[in-house]
Design brief:
6 helices, globular, NADH Oxidase, alpha+beta, 4-stranded antiparallel beta sheet, single chain, 14% strand, binds iron/sulfur cluster, 7 strands
Length: 218
């Protein structure tokens, strides 16, 4: 069993606070054995001891806009992704100075980020099929790094305490993507594709209703 380091964990948390990270949590790589090989931490760093999940609060809908560079067809959240990636590299450099290797995980192939956040004890996955954080609801952009640093991990969260009596996101989804009792990616994506709001040739806003209507973190 891995012996975990309280002081190092506190140092990482303090550093995250200092650089403006909005959400951070730590998960045990062994919990990822439920996923396929290519989506496990050890696929990215063989002797990793901790998965660090970092989140950036999307405090304005414009931060959640999808955009692509001129001449490229790949849609990303350029600004939010750049911010959260820099957070991850900051933590990586901090741990390197302390003698631990880390690797920032790409988005694809990568870890299942919202599941990783739930395993790190950050928050549950709600009926809206998204991570729910106590402070910011589902309005966070996530990224993860794996590290050989033995940090103290959070308690995995398997169930949403927020959603029990609530059905707001289900009732307000314009695509009726939850009507069969679980999230339908097909219905959601069809709606997203046909209801994009173009802000410019390079930037669009997509449906955000299941994020905006969630009362948690408001
Ligand atoms: S993004 Fe919009 S269409 Fe998709 S599930 Fe959420 S509310 Fe429904
Ligand atoms: S709107 Fe309600 S049911 Fe939907 S994710 Fe938020 S708390 Fe859960």
């Amino acid at each position: 069993m891995t012996e975990r380091d309280q002081q190092l964990t506190t140092d990482v948390r303090n550093y995250c606070e200092k650089i403006g990270v909005d959400v951070v949590g730590f998960a045990d790589p062994l919990l990822f054995e439920r996923y396929s090989e290519e989506n496990r931490p050890h696929a990215f760093l063989k002797n990793s001891k901790t998965v660090i999940v970092i989140g950036f609060h999307l405090y304005d809908i414009i931060l959640d806009a999808w955009s692509h560079k001129e001449g490229e067809g790949i849609w990303t959240h350029q600004f939010a992704d750049a911010v959260v990636e820099q957070f991850c590299h900051g933590v990586r450099r901090l741990l390197l100075k302390k003698g631990y290797n880390s690797r920032v995980i790409p988005y694809s192939p990568g870890l299942y980020l919202k599941e990783a956040a739930a395993l790190a004890g950050i928050g549950p996955i709600g009926k809206n099929n998204l991570l729910i954080t106590n402070l910011f609801g589902s309005q966070v952009r996530l990224r993860a790094l794996v590290t050989t640093a033995p940090l103290i991990c959070g308690d995995p969260i398997e169930e949403s305490k927020y959603c029990k009596e609530c059905n707001i996101c289900i009732e307000t989804c314009p695509a009726k993507a939850f009507d069969n009792g679980k999230y339908s990616r097909e219905k959601c994506y069809l709606y997203l594709e046909t209801h994009k709001k173009n802000l410019s040739d390079y930037t669009v806003i997509e449906c955000n209703v299941c994020i905006e209507t969630c009362p948690i973190g408001k």
